[in-house]
Write a structure and sequence with these properties.
It is built from three helices and eight strands; from the N terminus they run αααββββββββ. It has helices at residues 9-28, 34-57, 61-74, and strands at 81-84, 89-93, 96-100, 109-116, 137-141, 152-154, 176-179, 184-187. Strand 2 and strand 3 (96-100) form a beta hairpin. It has 195 residues and is an alpha+beta fold. It folds into two domains: 9-57; 79-187, no CATH class.
Protein backbone atom coordinates (compact mmCIF):
# COMPACT_ATOMS: atom_id res chain seq x y z
CA UNK A 1 0.00 0.00 0.00
CA UNK A 2 1.26 3.32 -0.92
CA UNK A 3 1.40 5.89 1.64
CA UNK A 4 0.76 9.55 0.91
CA UNK A 5 3.74 11.51 1.91
CA UNK A 6 3.49 15.28 1.95
CA UNK A 7 5.59 16.97 -0.68
CA UNK A 8 8.69 18.62 0.48
CA UNK A 9 8.53 22.36 0.99
CA UNK A 10 10.60 23.02 -2.13
CA UNK A 11 8.11 21.17 -4.32
CA UNK A 12 5.20 23.24 -2.99
CA UNK A 13 7.01 26.44 -3.71
CA UNK A 14 7.64 25.26 -7.26
CA UNK A 15 3.93 24.52 -7.78
CA UNK A 16 2.95 27.89 -6.33
CA UNK A 17 5.57 29.51 -8.49
CA UNK A 18 4.11 27.75 -11.55
CA UNK A 19 0.58 28.95 -10.64
CA UNK A 20 1.81 32.47 -10.04
CA UNK A 21 3.65 32.38 -13.34
CA UNK A 22 0.52 31.20 -15.14
CA UNK A 23 -1.58 33.97 -13.59
CA UNK A 24 1.04 36.54 -14.55
CA UNK A 25 0.96 35.37 -18.18
CA UNK A 26 -2.85 35.60 -18.21
CA UNK A 27 -2.66 39.11 -16.80
CA UNK A 28 -0.17 40.08 -19.48
CA UNK A 29 -2.40 38.85 -22.33
CA UNK A 30 -3.94 41.53 -24.58
CA UNK A 31 -7.46 41.15 -23.20
CA UNK A 32 -6.52 41.51 -19.58
CA UNK A 33 -3.88 44.20 -20.05
CA UNK A 34 -5.12 47.33 -18.28
CA UNK A 35 -3.50 49.65 -20.82
CA UNK A 36 -5.23 47.86 -23.71
CA UNK A 37 -8.58 48.00 -21.93
CA UNK A 38 -8.22 51.74 -21.29
CA UNK A 39 -7.27 52.24 -24.95
CA UNK A 40 -10.35 50.29 -26.09
CA UNK A 41 -12.62 52.35 -23.84
CA UNK A 42 -11.18 55.59 -25.23
CA UNK A 43 -11.48 54.36 -28.84
CA UNK A 44 -15.09 53.23 -28.36
CA UNK A 45 -15.96 56.54 -26.71
CA UNK A 46 -14.48 58.34 -29.73
CA UNK A 47 -16.51 56.19 -32.14
CA UNK A 48 -19.73 56.81 -30.19
CA UNK A 49 -19.13 60.57 -30.11
CA UNK A 50 -18.36 60.58 -33.84
CA UNK A 51 -21.57 58.70 -34.64
CA UNK A 52 -23.58 61.11 -32.53
CA UNK A 53 -21.93 63.98 -34.38
CA UNK A 54 -22.89 62.49 -37.74
CA UNK A 55 -26.46 62.08 -36.54
CA UNK A 56 -26.48 65.73 -35.50
CA UNK A 57 -25.36 66.83 -38.95
CA UNK A 58 -27.43 64.31 -40.90
CA UNK A 59 -30.58 66.46 -40.91
CA UNK A 60 -33.77 65.11 -42.50
CA UNK A 61 -35.11 66.94 -45.58
CA UNK A 62 -38.10 68.31 -43.64
CA UNK A 63 -35.75 70.04 -41.22
CA UNK A 64 -33.81 71.57 -44.11
CA UNK A 65 -37.02 72.93 -45.60
CA UNK A 66 -38.03 74.29 -42.21
CA UNK A 67 -34.65 75.95 -41.82
CA UNK A 68 -34.90 77.49 -45.28
CA UNK A 69 -38.36 78.82 -44.52
CA UNK A 70 -37.22 80.38 -41.27
CA UNK A 71 -34.23 81.87 -43.09
CA UNK A 72 -36.39 83.51 -45.74
CA UNK A 73 -38.83 84.87 -43.20
CA UNK A 74 -36.15 86.59 -41.16
CA UNK A 75 -34.02 87.86 -44.04
CA UNK A 76 -35.13 90.00 -46.96
CA UNK A 77 -32.68 88.47 -49.43
CA UNK A 78 -35.42 86.66 -51.38
CA UNK A 79 -37.51 89.32 -53.19
CA UNK A 80 -40.47 86.90 -53.49
CA UNK A 81 -40.94 86.73 -49.72
CA UNK A 82 -41.96 89.22 -47.07
CA UNK A 83 -43.03 88.87 -43.46
CA UNK A 84 -46.20 90.95 -43.11
CA UNK A 85 -47.60 91.64 -39.65
CA UNK A 86 -50.86 93.22 -38.49
CA UNK A 87 -49.70 96.67 -39.63
CA UNK A 88 -50.01 95.48 -43.24
CA UNK A 89 -47.59 95.76 -46.11
CA UNK A 90 -46.96 95.30 -49.79
CA UNK A 91 -44.97 92.67 -51.66
CA UNK A 92 -43.97 93.05 -55.31
CA UNK A 93 -42.31 90.42 -57.45
CA UNK A 94 -41.86 89.97 -61.21
CA UNK A 95 -44.47 92.64 -62.00
CA UNK A 96 -47.16 91.29 -59.66
CA UNK A 97 -47.97 92.71 -56.26
CA UNK A 98 -50.18 92.16 -53.23
CA UNK A 99 -51.12 95.02 -50.89
CA UNK A 100 -52.34 93.98 -47.47
CA UNK A 101 -54.08 96.65 -45.38
CA UNK A 102 -53.64 97.11 -41.63
CA UNK A 103 -55.38 94.45 -39.49
CA UNK A 104 -56.06 92.20 -42.50
CA UNK A 105 -53.89 89.54 -40.84
CA UNK A 106 -54.39 88.28 -37.28
CA UNK A 107 -50.69 87.49 -36.87
CA UNK A 108 -47.41 87.97 -38.71
CA UNK A 109 -47.44 85.82 -41.86
CA UNK A 110 -44.81 85.09 -44.48
CA UNK A 111 -46.31 86.12 -47.82
CA UNK A 112 -44.73 84.81 -51.00
CA UNK A 113 -45.25 85.32 -54.73
CA UNK A 114 -44.07 82.65 -57.18
CA UNK A 115 -43.97 83.07 -60.96
CA UNK A 116 -45.52 80.12 -62.79
CA UNK A 117 -44.89 78.98 -66.37
CA UNK A 118 -47.82 78.51 -68.73
CA UNK A 119 -47.46 74.72 -68.59
CA UNK A 120 -47.66 74.88 -64.76
CA UNK A 121 -51.22 76.24 -64.83
CA UNK A 122 -54.38 74.13 -64.80
CA UNK A 123 -56.20 74.10 -68.16
CA UNK A 124 -58.19 77.26 -68.89
CA UNK A 125 -61.96 77.09 -69.23
CA UNK A 126 -63.38 77.39 -72.78
CA UNK A 127 -63.39 81.04 -73.86
CA UNK A 128 -60.65 82.05 -71.39
CA UNK A 129 -57.46 83.61 -72.74
CA UNK A 130 -54.41 84.17 -70.57
CA UNK A 131 -53.40 87.83 -70.99
CA UNK A 132 -50.79 87.83 -68.19
CA UNK A 133 -47.64 89.58 -69.40
CA UNK A 134 -45.13 86.91 -70.38
CA UNK A 135 -47.79 84.18 -70.15
CA UNK A 136 -48.11 81.86 -67.21
CA UNK A 137 -49.35 83.20 -63.91
CA UNK A 138 -48.55 83.86 -60.27
CA UNK A 139 -49.02 81.88 -57.10
CA UNK A 140 -49.63 83.80 -53.87
CA UNK A 141 -48.69 81.86 -50.75
CA UNK A 142 -49.30 80.51 -48.19
CA UNK A 143 -52.37 78.59 -49.34
CA UNK A 144 -55.41 78.99 -47.15
CA UNK A 145 -54.48 82.42 -45.79
CA UNK A 146 -57.61 84.23 -44.63
CA UNK A 147 -57.59 88.02 -44.70
CA UNK A 148 -59.83 90.03 -42.38
CA UNK A 149 -60.00 92.82 -44.99
CA UNK A 150 -59.82 92.92 -48.77
CA UNK A 151 -56.35 92.83 -50.25
CA UNK A 152 -55.33 94.25 -53.61
CA UNK A 153 -53.59 92.05 -56.16
CA UNK A 154 -52.10 93.51 -59.31
CA UNK A 155 -51.00 91.39 -62.26
CA UNK A 156 -49.14 92.79 -65.29
CA UNK A 157 -51.05 92.38 -68.55
CA UNK A 158 -49.89 91.68 -72.09
CA UNK A 159 -51.48 94.53 -74.08
CA UNK A 160 -51.09 92.67 -77.38
CA UNK A 161 -53.25 89.76 -76.17
CA UNK A 162 -56.46 91.77 -75.66
CA UNK A 163 -59.43 90.95 -77.87
CA UNK A 164 -60.16 94.65 -78.30
CA UNK A 165 -56.64 95.57 -79.39
CA UNK A 166 -57.75 98.79 -81.13
CA UNK A 167 -58.89 100.56 -77.96
CA UNK A 168 -56.41 98.89 -75.62
CA UNK A 169 -59.19 98.68 -73.02
CA UNK A 170 -58.86 96.21 -70.16
CA UNK A 171 -62.56 96.31 -69.33
CA UNK A 172 -63.09 92.68 -70.33
CA UNK A 173 -60.06 91.40 -68.46
CA UNK A 174 -60.61 89.52 -65.22
CA UNK A 175 -58.20 88.00 -62.74
CA UNK A 176 -58.95 84.43 -61.70
CA UNK A 177 -57.66 82.04 -59.09
CA UNK A 178 -57.69 78.26 -59.25
CA UNK A 179 -59.88 76.76 -56.54
CA UNK A 180 -58.23 73.44 -55.73
CA UNK A 181 -61.21 72.16 -53.77
CA UNK A 182 -63.72 72.67 -56.59
CA UNK A 183 -61.10 72.32 -59.36
CA UNK A 184 -62.24 75.40 -61.26
CA UNK A 185 -61.24 78.98 -62.04
CA UNK A 186 -62.96 81.57 -59.82
CA UNK A 187 -62.93 85.29 -60.76
CA UNK A 188 -61.61 87.77 -58.21
CA UNK A 189 -63.56 90.94 -57.50
CA UNK A 190 -62.46 93.63 -59.93
CA UNK A 191 -61.65 96.92 -58.22
CA UNK A 192 -60.32 98.92 -61.15
CA UNK A 193 -58.51 98.44 -64.39
CA UNK A 194 -56.42 100.59 -66.63
CA UNK A 195 -59.32 101.71 -68.85
Amino acid sequence: MKRHVPAPLGALKLKEAALLSMNKRTAQSAFFNLRVLIGLVIALTGVILALQGFRTFAVPAASITQAQQSYTTTNSIDPRVRLVDTTGGKLEYAGASISIPENALKKATTIRIDRMAENGLPPLDPGMINVTAGGGGYRFLPHGTNFGKEVTIQIPLDGTAFTDSESGSTSGVRTYFWDEKYRQWIPLKRVHGHD
